[in-house]
Structures are given as C-alpha cells and as structure tokens.
Amino acid sequence: MPGFELALNFVERAKIVQSHDELASLLKETTLALGFSYYALVHHVDLKRASPATMRIENYPAEWVGYFLEHRLFADDPIHRACLLSSVGFSWTEVPKRIRMTRRQWSILESAASHGLRNGYTVPVNIPGECSGSCSFAMDGDAQIPHESPLLAELVGGFAFETARRLRPARGQPSFPLPQLTPRQRECLVLAMQGKSDWEISRILERSHDTVIQHLEMARQKFEVQRRLPLAIRALYDGQISFIEALEGQFPKLWE
Predict the structure, then answer these.
(1) pTM (2 decimals)?
(2) Which architecture does CATH list for 3-167?
(3) Which of 240, 224, 183 is closest to 207 using CA atoms?
(4) What is the C-alpha separation between 91 and 107, in angstroms, rounded?
(5) Is residue 137 helix, strand or coil?
(6) CB-based contact 201:192 (threshold 8 Å)
(7) What is the pLDDT of residue 169?
(8) Tens digits of residue pLDDT in 78-87
C-alpha cells in the first residue's frame, strides 16, 4: 500500500476503534507497514506509579521495558527531554544536537541500543494542562529508517495519541460541555495571572475597576471556584489560556 494511503487508512480505522487493545493491534500493524519494528505511545511520567488516565501502549522488548521502569529512566530519558523542545517529530540521531546530553542520558541511549532499540523516530505531544507525551517508532538493531517513513510516522503518531486520549479521557473530565470564558473575562484573567491587580488591569484595559472585578467574579462562577488560583488552573488545563500568555504577557487585545 503506498505510503500516504497507508497513513490515511490508519486514520480512518483509528476513528472507529473502541478500546486500547484495538488501537494497539492497529498500531502494531501500521508500525510494521511503515518499516519500523516497535512503537511506544506513552505519557512521560513514572509508569510504575501511573494513574488510570496515563497513556501507555507499546510493544518494546520486555527486557528493556522492565529495565526502564525499574530504574525510573523517564526522569532523564533524552528522548523525553527533546520532546519538550520540539513541536514536530525527530529521529533519535538528532537528539544530541537538540539537547545538551548528560552522561546518564548517553548511558540511557546506549542501554536502549543494547536492547535492540538503536534508532527511531519520535512524535512529541505537548498539550497545555496535560502531561507531555510522545509516540515513538523504533527500528530493530542497526536497521535504517526508510526515507518516507518519518513523514508518515508524524501523521500516524499524532493521530494515534489523540485516539488514545479519546479512549481514555483525563481523570475527572466531565461529560458535559466545559464552561467558556468570554473574551473580556479571558483577557482580565490573563492579566491577573501575570500578577496584575484589579486596579492595574482596569488601567491597562481602560475599563472601570468595578467592571474588571465583575468579569473575574463571573469567570469564577462559571467554573464554580471561589479563588483565582483554581480558576487559573482550570483555564490552563482546559486550554482556554496558554502558558505563553500567562508567563510572557503575549495576549491579544480581544475587544478593541
């Protein structure tokens, strides 16, 4: 099956899978068709102490998985570290160029290679408010990645992770529609998260002090919280405000 047809076939079939076992079977089939030997769709957390909402679907060699879990390598895994600095996929050979490698991280790559995982391609998944994660595809031994495979792995990996999220929603995610901030409530909250007082927000946005207080109070009521900290956490978790906006002050003028 031609490459893009293979990837599109995966997407269409993934839309209707109903369990993680079905997704695992589909991923295994597609991984082999792409020219890889193994796959790993995971959250970058301690998988030995994972919550029910943690993503973990993989077929890596059992000995390597046991070693990885026992030694808690997730905390120093250079592949995981590189994922935090990229929005697109990358081959494992590129990792030393993307991050400053420590001796322990070199050791992790060497250990993976000794278990047959010498080369691969990883698609990072960084969603605001959620644990970072990735979908990796690995070669067996010294085999080289087929020329067309990285581009196809990008599509398959990203959609596979989103399918896993659909099958296992985040713990505590409600079944009803999430509350939505209005543009004015959102802008006031972004400024509040940047450390601005109500008075400062009113001066920046050229609105009355009482109007700012009212916008923030209505936002709290929507999320059924009493204080601004849990309101900010909910807004970040739901993706209504990005970390960049909160930390760097890059917010749009939404009602000029």
Answers:
(1) 0.70
(2) 2-Layer Sandwich (3.30)
(3) 183
(4) 18
(5) strand
(6) yes
(7) 57
(8) 999 999 889 8
